[in-house]
Amino acid sequence: MLMMAVAPPAIVQPAAVAPRSFGAFVEALEEVAEAFIDGRESELPALVVASRKAWEHAKRNHASVLADGEIQAIDRGLDALAGLKPRFMAESALGLGGTILGHMRPSRNRARLVADAATMLAWCRVEARAWDQVPNVAEAFQPYLDQCGGHRAPEVRRIHDYLGVLQDDLANRSVTGAKRDLRRLLELLDQAERN
What we know:
By secondary structure, the protein is an all-alpha fold. The chain folds into 2 domains: 88 residues, no CATH class; 90 residues, Four Helix Bundle (Hemerythrin (Met), subunit A) (Up-down Bundle), CATH 1.20.120.290. The chain has 9 helices and no strands. α2 packs antiparallel against α3, α2 packs parallel to α6 and α3 packs antiparallel against α4. The N and C termini lie far apart (59 Å). The N terminus is likely disordered.
């Protein structure tokens, strides 16, 4: 006799998916990391305020997407950002964005944001010489490259090339080389999206 497991509907329903407006919040958080990477530390306080505004807008319009614990954790994380040193501020902002990325539907935009965040986090970790904590940037780029398919072929080839160069520089623990490669990957990602 065939037995079927019965589960309450709440258990088998998929998690709510973050709407597109959450993408604006993730991008605002990535601006914090980008300012640190670009040496624009004087802009960090204003960017933290902008991130808070983007969060309040997203939270007000779509609070049901996230669990209460996640909302409270993001609120606390945003409150703590202003008191952190610039590198930790950048890393924390990227971590908060990662919470939202986990709820976003797979798309090229989500894949781009994930690749962006991993590249920026890697830059922060290389800057700190925390070699064992550098994320796998090539792995983070793969969904984006898969989404591009045959489109944006020149940029995709260059991204592949720089991912290989980055692996070599990381293996050699070359701070200057790895940071240069990571910046170039960020530029190529922007170019691919503009074309």
